[in-house]
Amino acid sequence: MISAAVAKILGALFKIPLTNLLGGVGMGYFGCAYGLFLPIYALSATGLSAAVAKLTAEESARGCFGSVRRIRSTSRLIFSGLGIVLTLLIIFAAKPFAIYTTGDKSSWYAILMIAPSALFGCMSAVERGYYEGLQNMYPTAMSQAAEAVIKVICGLSFSGFVLEHEQQVLLFFPSGTDILSVAAAAAVLGVTVSTAAGFLYFLFRNIVGGDGLRRSDICSGKIDSRRCIAKKLTLTMLPITLGSVGATLTSIVDLCTVMRCIDYSQGHSITALVERFGEIASDKAFPAFVYGAFTGMALTVFNLVPSVTNMYGRSALPCAARAFAKGKKDVLREQVRSILLAAGLIAIPSGIGLTLLAKPIMLTLYSGHTDEAGIAASALIALAPGMVFLCLVTPLFSIMQGIGRADLPVKLMIFGVVIKLIGNILLIPIPTFAETGAGISTSICYGIMLILSLLSLRHELNGSLEIIKTMLPVVYASIMSGTTAYLLKSVLRFCDIKVQLAGCILGAVIMYVIVLWLMGHSGNNIREKLSLRV
C-alpha cells in the first residue's frame, strides 16, 4: 500500500511539471500513448500477476515446491511470448492507430515509444505474482517504487533535453515534424525505461538472492505438466484481466472520441468555438490542445483521490469472502455500509472541494499554462461527481468479487463504458460542451455504475443496505465544509491565488472535522462503523 501511494504521488509529480513543459498540445500527444499504456499496464500488473500469485500460493500451501518452480518457468515462457506479440503489434499499428483514433498522426512517435513496455510489463508480472504467491510483497513494492522514481527522472529529463536542443533533435526527423510530438515521445520513452528498470530489479534480485525457496523445499506431491499449468493460468487470468482492463476502457473511449469530436466541431461549428475559446479554436492543433488539458491536467487531479480509496477495496475483498463463506449476509451488509462510509469520508468532501476550487487548483499547479488551466478547470468541475462515484463503486466491485460474483463488475463496467461512449459522441461536438462533454459523460457513467452496483448487492444480500442513513452525516458535514470554502473564496478573492487556495482548503478541513465532531450521536456512529473490519 505504501509503495502504491508513493507511485501515485510520484506520478502526479511527473505529470504536473511535464504539462508545464509540453503544454496542452504536447500533453495531447503524450495522452494518446499513455491511454494505450493503461490497459497494457492493467493487464500485466493485475491480471497476469494475480493468476501467477494464485497458482503459486496453492502449490506452496500444499508443499509442492517443484510445481511452484515449474509455474514460474512456464509463466515466464507464456507471458514473455505474450509481451513480444503485444510489442510487435503496437510497433506495426502505431501510425494507423494514431490516424484512426485521433485523426492526427503526430502522436505516432509517442505510441511507438510505449511499445517495449508491454514486454517488460509482462515479464515483471510473472516475478511479482511469484513472490506475492509466496507471501512476500517486498519485491513488488520495491519494483513499483523503482519504476515510479525512474519514470519521473527519465521522463522529465528526456523531454526537457529535446525541448532545449530543438534544432539538433529535429535533424533526425522528417521536415515539418512538430517538436512537441518528439518531446512527448521522449517523455513516453521515460515511462518505458521505468518498466525496464522494474524488470531489471527482479533480474538483479534473482541473481543475488535466488528464487526465494530453500534447497530443502522439495516437492511433496505430483508436479503438474506445463500444459496443465498453462491451462490453469489462462482460466484464472481471464476474469481478473477482463475486470482490470475494463476499468481502463474509459480512457480508450476518450482517446478515440475527444479529438475526433472536436475536429468535427471545428468543421461544422467553428464560429461558435471561436466565440468561446478565441482564435486558438481555429488552429489545427486545437483538438490535441483540449485533449491534453483534459487528460494531462484534469484527469491527473481526478485520479488522486480514487488511488487512495482503492485501498479500501483491497481490504474489503478478503473480509467479504470470509463472511460469505460462513453465510453471514447481515455481516456483509454491514461491511458494505462501513466500506462506503470509509470511502465517502474522503471522497464526498473532496468532490465538493474540487468543484468549488477547480480554477485555483489548476492555476496553482499549472501556472505557466493559463489557457490550458482554464479548460482543465471546467473539465474538472464536470469530472468531480464522477470522482465521488468512482471512489464508492470500486470497493463495491471488490465485495462482489469476494462473494463469488466477479462477473458483475465486468458487466457493469461494459454497460457504463457504452453510456460514456454515447455521451462523448453526443456532447463533445456541441461547442458548449467541447471541454466538459467527456467529464459529464464520465460522471454519468460512474453514477449509473454505482446505482446498479448498490441494487445488485441489495439483491445478492437479500436486504436493505440503509445507504442514505449511513451517508447522511458525511453529506451534511461535506456541504458545510463546501459552504465554508465558498465563503472564504469570496473573502480572499483579492489575495494571491495560492493564498486563496490554501485558506479555503484549511478552513474547509477545519469546518468538516468540527461538524462531524459536533454531530454527537451521528459522529459516534461513524466511529463505530469505521472500527468494523474495513
Percentage of β-strand residues: under 5%
Order of helices and strands: HHHHHHHHHHHHHHHHHHH
Number of domains: 2
Averaged pLDDT: 81
Distance between the termini: 15 Å
Largest sheet data:
none
Based on secondary structure, the structural category is mainly alpha
Please give the radius of gyration in angstroms: 24 Å
Helix content: over 70%
Detailed description of the structure:
The chain is mainly α and about 525 residues long. The protein folds into 2 domains: about 1-210 and about 225-245, no CATH class; about 255-465, no CATH class. The protein is built from 19 helices and no strands. The chain is globular, with a radius of gyration of 24 Å.
Topology, pairings included?
Blueprint: H1 2-62, H2 65-102, H3 108-114, H4 116-133, H5 138-164, H6 166-170, H7 179-209, H8 226-246, H9 249-268, H10 270-277, H11 286-302, H12 304-325, H13 329-365, H14 370-402, H15 407-427, H16 437-461, H17 467-491, H18 497-518, H19 521-530
Helix pairs in contact: 1-2, 1-3, 1-4, 1-5, 1-7, 1-8, 1-9, 1-11, 2-3, 2-4, 2-8, 3-7, 4-7, 5-7, 8-15, 9-11, 9-15, 11-14, 12-13, 12-14, 13-14, 13-17, 13-18, 14-16, 15-16, 17-18
Concise structural overview:
The protein has 534 residues and is mainly alpha-helical.
Highlighted features:
single chain; mainly alpha; about 0% strand
